[in-house]
Amino acid sequence: MLINENLVQDIVQEVVAKMQIAEAPGGKHGVFTDMNDAIAAAKASQAVIRRMSLDQREQIISNIRRKTHENAEIIARMGVNETGMGNVGHKILKHKLVADKTPGTEDLKTTAWSGDRGLTLIEMGPFGVIGAITPCTNPSETVICNSIGMIAAGNTVVFNPHPQAIRTSIFALNMINEASLEAGGPDNVACTVEKPTLETSGIMMKHKDIPLLVATGGPGVVTAVLSSGKRGIGAGAGNPPAVVDETADIRKAAEDIVNGCTFDNNLPCIAEKEIVAVESIADELMHYMISEQGCYLISKEEQDRLTATVLTPKGLNRKCVGRDAKTLLGMIGITVPDNIRCIVFEGEKEHPLIAEELMMPILGVVRARDIDDAIEKAVWLEHGNRHSAHIHSKNIDNITKYAREIDTAILVKNAPSYAALGFGGEGYCTFTIASRTGEGLTSTKSFTKSRRCVMSDSLCIR
C-alpha cells in the first residue's frame, strides 16, 4: 500500500519538529551536544553490548532490520528533501537492501585447531567504541549498514555525519537506538552530535576511547583518518569504468550500464561513471542507449556548457551532484521529456566530464582500438583508486585480463553495477567499500579484532 504524499510530508514535518534536541548534554536516543559526551555514552553502552550473547545482539539487529523496512519511505524522502540528491524510489530500495542483506552476527566465525598438543581457537572480538564518518550521498543507508555490522560485532559507534544530511542521520540513529531498547539492549548503541563539524570530527579521531576509525567519503576525509595514528578503514572515491568489447550482448550492455549509472542518480560510488567501448561496437552501443534507454546525446557546445555548470574551480558543483538528467539539462537551457534519464556523449579519456568522478547520470563514451587499448584506457580512468570496475564481455580471457589489470575491490561482469551490492546479484550488501585500506566490502567481521585462545595439551579428546 502506497503512503499518501501529503501524509508523508506531515509525518516528515512531525519527525523534524521532534528533533529539536535539548542543549543539555545527553540528547534523546544517542544525540548529544558535545562529542565527548557522545563518546562517553557509547562507551558505557559498549560495556553492556560486549557482555550480551550473540543471540541477544541478533535480536537487536533483527529489530533494526524491521524498523528500517517500516521507515524506508520516510527516511528516503527525508534524505532527498534534506540533501537535494537522489531518487526517492531508489532510496527506498537501498534501505530495504540494507535491511535484508547487511550481514549480522552470522558473519562471525570461530576457527579451531585440535591436535596432539591441545586446542587453539581464533575468535573475533570487538574493538570497543568505533568512530565513523559518513557522507551526504548515502547518509542513512551508511549509518544503518555500519550500525548493523558494528553492533553485531559487539561494538558501539559514534558517528560524525555530513552536516548536509544531519537530520536524516539523526532520524536513523534514533531508530537504531529505539530498536535496541525494544529488544532489551541499551540506549546509545549509536551516537552522534547535534551539530557535526570538522572540530567534532577531530575530537572523535583523537579521543583515547576510540580505537578504530571508519571513514566513508571523499579522499580528504579518508586521508585524515589514515593519518590519525589509529587503525583506520577507509572507503574512498572511485571513478568506475565500464568496458564493452566486441563479444558482449550489446543491447543488454546498454540497458545494464544505463540502469546502473542512473540508479539513485549515480550517487553510489560503485556506479558506472564512464564507458570504454571497443571501436567495432561503439556505434551500436550508442544506438541502443539513445533509442531504447532514455539517453540524450549532447553536442560539443552543450558539453562545454555542461562542463562549466557541473565543475567549478573548487571541484564539483554540489547543486548538481545526485540530480537527475532532466534537471541537469535544464540547468544549461535544454528541455527534454521525462523519459530522459541519462546524458551521453563521445570524448577522449581526458575530457573533464569523463576523467572526473561526477556522481551524476552523465556517461562519456571513450572509443578503443581493441580490448588491450580499452583496458589501458580504463585503468587510467580508474585513477588507481582500486574501487570498482565493470565489463561486458563473453570472452573469459578478456574478462580475466581486465580483472588482473584493473585490480579493484569490485568487478561486475555483464550486469548493472548495483549487482555488486547483492541487488540482482549474489552476496551481501554494504555501503562502506574500503578499497583504499584493503578490506573491500566491509561486514561485521571487518569491525572485529582477531584473538587467539590456546589450551595446551588439553581438550583434544580423539
From TrEMBL:
GO molecular function terms noted in the UniProt entry: acetaldehyde dehydrogenase (acetylating) activity
CDD domains per UniProt: ALDH_EutE
Record Gene3D superfamilies: Aldehyde Dehydrogenase, Chain A, domain 1 (3.40.605.10), Aldehyde Dehydrogenase, Chain A, domain 2 (3.40.309.10)
Domain Aldehyde dehydrogenase: 33-427
Annotated keywords: NAD, Oxidoreductase
The keyword NAD appears for this protein: yes
One Pfam family per UniProt: Aldedh
Keyword match RNA-binding: no
Name the UniProt record assigns to this protein: Aldehyde-alcohol dehydrogenase
Organism: Acetatifactor muris
